[in-house]
Amino acid sequence: MLQKEGYHVAAVYHAGDESARMLHEQSGIRIFKWNVADFDACKRGVAAVESELGPVDILVNNAGITRDTPLHRMTSEQWTDVLATNLGSLFNMCRPVIEGMRARKFGRIVNIGSVNGQRGQYGQTNYAASKAGVIGFTKALALESARFGITVNCVAPGYCHTDMVAAVRDDVMASILATIPVGRLGEPEDVARIVAFLAQDSAGFITGATFSANGGQYMA
Ligand SMILES: NC(=O)c1ccc[n+]([C@@H]2O[C@H](COP(=O)([O-])OP(=O)(O)OC[C@H]3O[C@@H](n4cnc5c(N)ncnc54)[C@H](OP(=O)(O)O)[C@@H]3O)[C@@H](O)[C@H]2O)c1
C-alpha cells in the first residue's frame, strides 16, 4: 500500500526466503534480510537501506512472533524470544533512524501492536506484555519527538487473515470468530490502510495514539 502511495519501500524479513522472493518478483520492492531482534544487525541493515534508497523517513515496526503457552509451562526462551522480537525490535530499529529524523525535522514511525496487548489473552503473557510495551514505547517516543516533526503511533490489529493466525487450531478459530462483531477476520489491507494514513505528511497532528482495527472485538 505504501508503494502504491508512491513511497520508495524497503521490506525486511528474517527466515521466509521464498515469500520474500515472491514479494520482490510481484512488486519490485527491495527486500533486506536481517534479524530485528539483533541491534547490530539493525544498525548495519538500516545503513544498507539508506545507502541504496536514501534516508528513512517512515519506519513501520511490523515484525512479530508468538510462542503461546500458559506461564506455568513457558520457558525462559519463549519469553525472551517474543520480547526481543516484538518489543526489543522497536529500540533496535528506531535507534538507528531517530537521529536522522530529528536532524531532518520529519519522521513517521508506526508500531504494530495487538488487541491482545490491550486486553490480555490466555497463553500469551509473553506476547501481551510485548504488545502492551509497544503502546508505552509509542507514547514515550511520541513525547520526545513531537517538536521535531516526528510522529509515533501504534496500530493494534485484531485477528487478521495472515500466516500468524493460520497457525491457530480450527476449533479455537471458530470460537474467536464468534467474538468478532463484524463477523470476519481482518485483512492485511485493513491494517495497511491505517499505516498509510499515518505516514502522510498531512498526518502531523496525530501522535502517541493507538488505533484499533479489530472488527469491534475490543473497544479500548
Ligand atoms: N495476524 C494477526 O491476527 C495479528 C493480530 C494482531 C497483531 N498482529 C501483529 O501484526 C504484525 C504482523 O503479523 P502477521 O500476522 O503478518 O505475522 P506473520 O504472517 O507471521 O508475519 C510476521 C513477519 O515478521 C517477520 N519477522 C518475524 N520475526 C522477525 C525477525 N526477528 N526479524 C525480521 N523479521 C521478522 C517475518 O519474517 P519471516 O517470515 O522471514 O520470519 C514475517 O514477515 C505482528 O507484529 C503481529 O504481532 C497480527
Automatic annotation (TrEMBL):
MF-aspect GO terms: acetoacetyl-CoA reductase activity
Alphabetical UniProt keywords: Oxidoreductase
GO cellular component, one term: cytoplasm
Pfam families per record: adh_short_C2
Domain of life: Bacteria
Family listed: Belongs to the short-chain dehydrogenases/reductases (SDR) family.
Name listed for the protein in its UniProt record: 3-oxoacyl-[acyl-carrier-protein] reductase
Protein source organism: Dokdonella fugitiva
